[in-house]
Amino acid sequence: MLSGILNSDKAIQMNIAIIRAFVEMRRFKIIYTDWKEQLRELRDKISGNDAQLSQLYDALKNLLDNKAAQKKWEERKRIGFKIITN
User: Fold this and answer.
1) Environment class of 3 (CB within 10 Å of its CB; exposed 0-12, middle 13-18, buried 19+)
2) Which class for 5: exposed (0-12), middle (13-18), buried (19 or more C-beta within 10 A)?
3) CA atoms within 13 A on the CB side of 36
4) Distance (Å, rounded) from C-alpha 22 to C-alpha 81?
5) 22 falls in which pLDDT band (50, 70, 90)?
6) What share of the chain has pLDDT > 90, as a percent?
7) In the prediction, which pLDDT does 4 show?
8) How far apart are CA 31 and CA 13, in angstroms?
9) If you count DSSP H runs as helices and E runs as strands, how many of each does the chain have, helices first?
10) From residue 13, how far is each of 6, 7, 19, 20, 26 by CA, in Å?
């Protein structure tokens, strides 16, 4: 308050710095509440899709397991009679 009353260069600079600090705090509060709201909306959207994402993950896992089993089967060591051609 004193920096607003005094009429020196130092007091004027201090008053400007104080006002800028309050403006910056206000701007930060606005941005923070906006981020908070966006995070809340994102959380609500994601929480609704958890069951669907879980089913998708399980389906992909089963597909990968089946492909791995098929590859393992095809690359197995063959047993039995071998036909030798010359």
Assistant:
1) middle
2) exposed
3) 6
4) 88
5) very high
6) 7
7) 65
8) 27
9) 2, 0
10) 11, 10, 10, 11, 20
Q: What values do phi and psi take at 76, rounded to 5?
A: -70, 160
CA 24/CA 31 separation, integer angstroms: 10
CA-angle at 19, arms to 18 and 24, nearest 5°: 100
Instruction: Record the pTM.
Output: 0.40
**Which two structure tokens, joined as six digits, stand for 34?**
């906006």
Query: What is the tens place of the pLDDT at every residue in 50-78?
Result: 777 778 888 888 888 888 788 887 887 77
